[in-house]
Amino acid sequence: MKKNDEVICNVCGISSKDEKDAVFIQAIKGGESVDICTSCMPTVIHGSGSVVRSNESIAAELGK
After folding, report:
1. 63: pLDDT confidence band, cut at 50, 70 and 90?
2. How would you classify residue 63: left for phi > 0, otherwise alpha for psi between -120 and 50, otherwise beta?
3. Local structure of residue 59 (DSSP, 8 states)
4. Domain interval for residue 7
5. Count of domains in the chain?
6. Residue 18: predicted pLDDT
């Protein structure tokens, strides 16, 4: 999820503002653009896309 100048992982919720060395990959889930940190990519690739939460869900959880 992108919000202003911040990128937040749609799996774990890590923020580019909190973790300066985090790397994010943009993907599409259900027609929605989502961002996934590289630490979570193996979970998505080898597991299931069901772990990827919607931007609305991440925003509500983080109060953004």
Report:
1. confident
2. left
3. H
4. 2-62
5. 1
6. 94
Q: What is the DSSP string of 29-58?
A: ETTEEEEEETTTHHHHHHT-GGGPPPHHHH
- pLDDT value at position 13? 95
Residues with Cβ within 8 Å of residue 50, at least 6 apart in sequence: none
Q: What is the mean pLDDT of residues 22-34?
A: 97
Q: Which of 62, 41, 46 is nearest to 54 (CA)?
A: 62
**Calpha distance 29→53 (Å, rounded):** 9
pLDDT in tens, 30-51: 999 999 999 999 999 998 889 9
SS3 of 17, please?
coil
Q: What is the sign, positive or negative, of the torsion defined by CA atoms of 48, 50, 54, 57?
A: negative
